[in-house]
Amino acid sequence: MMDFAIWIENLGLFSDIRGSAYEYPILLALHLVGIAFAGGLILITDLRLLGWAFGGHSVASVVNALRWPKRLGFVWVGGCGFLLAMSKAEGYFLNGAFQIKMTLLFLVVVHALVFRPTVYNKPEELDKAPELPGRAKLAATLSLLLWIGILSAGRAIGYLNAPNGLHYTQLLHTILTLGRG
Amino acid sequence: MLIENPVNTFAIVFPILEILHIAGFAVAIGSVAAVDFRILGYGLQQQTPSQIAKATGFWMLGGLVLAIFSGFGLYSSDPDMYYLNWSFIIKMIVLVTAIVLNYTIHRKIAQTDSTTGGAKAVAVISLVLWAAVIFGGIFIAFVMGGL
């Protein structure tokens, strides 16, 4: 696995990103611009599913219109994130926060598979219900929690840049150590 | 008596403030971007710009307040480094410009539901300014040395 990581990060494109003074921060900034733009779309979808915003508008009018923009946002943010991670593949693969972030991203896929058939693919049915069904609110709540977790784990990556990497089981220990100053 | 800044006493405080800062600006800028993309003809189609602005106004302001206050906390960890950092200075100038634009011209354009060339230009300027604020923030950490 580590040989693979070292091979990846030494590919021309990725070693360029690592070696350049500006490419890495520019990609990081583009990653965050995407997070802000696409994050707003996820927030709007979830707020509508919770009934906290756009109450006067149908669930379908919000969910359907934002599907493709969210996918594009995901490709943008994921694309930048992929380039960032691969440029320092060895460090990232060994980084506990990165491992947690990837696990949470996998759970986002699971979340989509679980809730698509009953929520995201059936917004018209949600509109017909007398009030928002519990499954819509559950989908929105889990989505918000997952993305907050991904954001937090993403920021934590920079703090766990131990030379030999850090296994996720060491994360709690590190947080407790940080807490003691 | 010297009172220690808790941001510097507990190492965990700074990353927590950073996470709140990112979450806050993502909510705020994401809300503005939804209005701007609508003016440009993308994203939400069945809602007018004014309806989107009204529905997200609370979240825009809440996110902005969270980002600004967590930003004060981050700044307090090392004020000398920040105010001498050219990326930070540019960020502050662009940020103030973006906030003023948002609550003046941008608000007016959104309220009239205008999608003329002028309105689209304002939407593009708004998106560019907010993206520039994020760039300014990221580059603080990558700019060694100050002015």
Outline the structure in words.
The complex is a heterodimer of chains A (181) and B (147). Chain A is mainly alpha-helical and 181 residues long. Chain A has helices at 2-9, 12-19, 23-50, 59-87, 89-93, 96-120, 123-128, 134-157, 171-179. Chain A has one domain (2-179). Helices cover 78% and strands 0% of the residues of chain A. Chain B has one domain. Chain B has six helices and no strands. In chain B, helix 5 runs antiparallel to helix 6. Chain B is elongated. In chain B, 40% of the residues are buried.
Number of strands of chain A: 0
| Secondary structure category of chain B | mainly alpha
| Overall pLDDT of chain B | 90
Largest beta-sheet characterization of chain A: none
**How big a fraction of the residues of chain B is strand?**
under 5%
Q: If you average the pLDDT of chain A, what whole number results? A: 86
Uncertain stretches of chain A = none
- Work out the helicity level of chain A: over 70%
Q: Categorize the overall geometry of chain B.
A: elongated
Nutshell version of this structure?
The complex is a heterodimer of chains A (181) and B (147). With 181 residues, chain A is mainly alpha-helical.
What descriptors fit this protein?
heterodimer; A: 181 residues; mainly alpha; 9 helices; 0% strand; B: 147 residues; 6 helices; elongated
